[in-house]
Design goal:
Layout lengths: L1 E7 L10 H9 L12 H11 L4 H9 L6 H12 L2 E9 H10 L6 E10 L2 E5 L7 E2 L3 E2 L1 H9 L2 E8 L5 H4 L4 E4 L1 H9 L5 E2 L3 H9 L3
Parallel strand pairs: 1-2, 1-7, 2-3, 7-8, 8-9
Antiparallel strand pairs: 3-4, 5-6
Helix pairs in contact: 4-9
Length: 208
């Protein structure tokens, strides 16, 4: 078994806000409070497909994703000195991969929902790996953690929302911010609070 895997959510964890909220604020602000009642994968699909953005417009929005740039240095440090890193998201691999590449990170391991342009329109599909797929969010994060626990001695997890709660409970080391930190505190669970990935880098720098 490998020694250590660091798993991180993307939207709201590595970035300042969810990408679908960025799209809603820019192109459909009237839907920001989700009056349709949709959530999870269906909300993401409705948002990313429903705005009918052209590919160049979509990719311009990716450029403007407000990313925590300290993640770049953290990724390079951790990957070189401590272990592997996996981005685990209920968002789309399409924008995650492109944003990371824009910031100089290529060939990052990502498990997320699939996205692509077809006939000039963006299409979102659930994660293609059957062992990780689910209806609610497209990707079942608990199944992903369970799978990798059989391949690594320890797993660290970073997240920001209730979607990360069940998954992070399976990790050996938890880093939390925003709503996830509030939930973990409510349940009196042990975790490390962070705001930026530079905070997480400080934690791991002693193990270099």
């Amino acid at each position: 078994m490998k020694p250590l895997l660091f798993i991180s959510d993307f939207d709201g964890t590595i970035t300042a806000q969810d990408f679908f909220k960025q799209i809603l604020l820019r192109y459909a602000p009237e839907k920001i409070f989700n009056p349709t009642g949709k959530r999870g994968f269906e909300l993401l699909k409705e948002t990313l497909e429903g705005t009918n953005l052209k590919q160049e417009e979509f990719e311009k929005e990716i450029e403007h994703i407000p990313m925590d740039l300290s993640f770049i240095d953290f990724y390079k440090f951790f990957n070189k000195n401590l272990g592997d890193i996996l981005i685990l998201s209920a968002g789309s691999k399409y924008y995650i991969e492109k944003k990371l590449e824009l910031e100089g990170l290529k060939n990052v391991k990502i498990i997320a929902n699939e996205g692509f342009f077809k006939n000039g329109k963006f299409k979102l599909e659930k994660n293609e790996e059957e062992k990780f797929k689910e209806d609610e969010f497209g990707v079942n994060k608990v199944k992903v953690i369970s799978y990798y626990k059989n391949k690594y001695e320890k797993i660290a997890y970073a997240g920001d929302s209730y979607v990360d709660f069940k998954a992070c409970c399976k990790a050996d080391l938890i880093f939390a911010k925003a709503n996830l930190a509030k939930i973990l505190k409510m349940f009196k669970m042990k975790f490390n609070k962070f705001e930026k990935f530079s905070d997480i880098a400080k934690y791991f720098s002693r193990f270099k």
